[in-house]
Amino acid sequence: MGNSDSKLHFRKAVIQLTTKTQPVEASEDVFWDQFWTDVNLTAQDIFTLVPAAEIRAVREESPSNLATLCYKAVERLVLNADSGCVCERDRQAVLSCTRLLTRILPYIFEDPDWRGFFWSTVPKVGKSLDEGDDGSTRPLAESLLTAISDLLFCPDFTVESHSRTSADGPCDIQSIDSCEFIWEAGVGFAQTPPLNHTHDSNRAGGLKLFFTCFSEEMYQSPSDTHIPNPWVSFFSSGENRHALPLFTSLLNVVCAYDPVGYGIPYNHLMFSDQRGVLAELALQTLIVSLDISKAQLEYQIFPRDMFQATRGENLFVNYLSRIHREEDFHFILREIGRLLNNPLLQTYLPHSCKKITFHQELLVLLWKLCDLNKKFLFYVLKSSDVLDILVPILFYLSDCRANQSCVGLVHIGVFILLLLSGERNFGVRLNKPYSVRVPMDISVFAGTHADLLIVVFHKIITSGHQRLQPLYDCMLTIIVNVSPYLKSLSMVAANKLLHLLEVFSSPWFLFCSPVNHHLVFFLLEVFNNIIQYQFDGNFNLVYGIIRKRNLFHQLANLPTDVNSIQKALQKKRSSNSTHNAVFMETNNPYNTACSEGPYKTTPVQTGTLNASLKAMPRIDKLTETSQVSEDGATLLLQQSDSTHSQSDHSSETQDTRESIFLSKTLVLSWKSKLPLQTIMRLLQVLVPQVEKICIDKGLTDESEILKFLQHGTLVGLLPVPHPILIRKYQANEGTALWFRTYMWGIIYLRYVDPPVWYDTDVKLFEIQRI
């Protein structure tokens, strides 16, 4: 049947379905076969020929017909999976059923009355469901997931047929060991199967149907998402006999994907890249399957026999957490780093090299790997390979800082760095010189990766989107965590830190919010850590502190009288927001000139769709504080830091007099706790020495002063070193919900052509047009 005839035939079948007022019996195979037998249509064709309005009309006016359509489509998939898709006609029927269900499912999920339809028992479907001793049936959802899983390892349809399986004709698909048919070499599998674009395309259709099934979660409000997703639960459980080969196939396909290939310019414009499509779908299926609540995770890590799987256990999380071979770690880290660096590639011919677009999903996978597998986290931090991850993350943060549609990307990048910064080795690795330049519009500097981190964070804070303000304390916490190990900051990075202190210590900023003083405490902790533990190499920072000594004296003498607070609050009200011209550095004569090249951040396009994000918990809810002992061990401390106590008071919700009184009370509660002793002692010792050498030698060149400070010492002159405090990320339901909404928001926005979920009534997040 020609393509045009196929479209006409299929469209007539859809019209018949939407216009029938009486139920069509499931036994009328002639009618139902019109939707998948001898139908040769692409996914785009089916989405066009089955309009959203008609799906909703059938759902409301002929619900039994819609139910029967779903049942018959699943039945066809089960029957063809059992038979092994021995002919081209069966394979085309599978593709048609897969695409049709992908089109219909979101409209079933959006209606609460249909929510449990796929989990209700139905008449027996296919021979594989006749195995129960009591003749009971299984939910339609389980039949669907089992059939698609079988089909993803079906010889000559989605995998290469081994010689022994094809010699005697088609074999029983239930007897196949799918671990022999893993899609790509890598973790747990050494053989490299031949590349087959048709198989990749067929796999892609199955994976798209998988996470369309999983997307039922998008139609639940955030308050309901603590309930495990039943689709994911079954798919990743021991009841799916393909769980291990599926997990391995998805992970290996992602890691082994090479968008550059042989490096032929513009090859991606001349040839379709079906493996790239599959890699993206595999990555999305993988991260959705790894989504798990804090309570579920705590249950899974409870010690028991590693081979004992319970129905409620997510085997994908189990497998990921148990990867332990160094060669596997090396493979995963090397390939994820290569893919993350792909958008940074510079070529002489513009746009001649393919750039991946699924870097956000890659960052989610990296987060899952580091969070769920501590051995992998320690491996990442064991060598400087972690810097191959750090640089692209900082590139994404800098590139997206002003783009409202990329706020989630900045969040995930900061969270990964927060997780890494909780380990000492990360701070140590940052001392490696930064020599490979990537296109970022930041100040030019000669220094280390630590300098790069600080310069990028400063850029985000001073010129990023307003919606990034909740990340300020996260970014400063990262700098605090690594500061005891930073051997030598550049002058540029030192000036950036001092500029942040200048901004955050201004009276109007400190008084306008009951939590703003936390930022000052973080910065003072950074300075104290460097002075106490890395004084010898940080003469640039010491010189900056001496030059900006008035900042510290002003903090020590911060006024707390009513008149001063009132003036500061009036200044705040006269400005548009806390994120305004106060961050600009044009009035700072000591600021290093910003020598950006022609590279600019990515502007947001008018009309861009954006998915809303849940609010993140505050930093004290995201982290737990540990004290580092002399032998390097960490001791968990109680969260009793008064400087980070929470307050529900808001100056915007009370009258001026009460607001000023509360501000005064709050300021008095933390001002006396400002950790200024070490810095004041440094100034007390060094300022007279610097002034004397300048007068005696008539110095006007700061290089001579830096040389003096470089050879200076404060041994025995500073207070007893304070213990190093590290704030480590801790799993919580707030971040679990944030990741869930962020992940589904990415997937929703990725598939608008054809529009899998577009214009359906999702409730997990809101879709905004920027």
From TrEMBL:
One protein family per Pfam: Hid1
Q: Which source organism? A: Cyprinus carpio
Would you say which domain of life the source belongs to?
A: Eukaryota
Please identify the protein, giving its name as recorded.
HID1 domain containing b
Which GO cellular component does the record give, naming just one? Golgi medial cisterna
Against PANTHER family, the record matches this protein to: PROTEIN HID1
InterPro entries documented for this protein: Hid-1/Ecm30 (IPR026705)
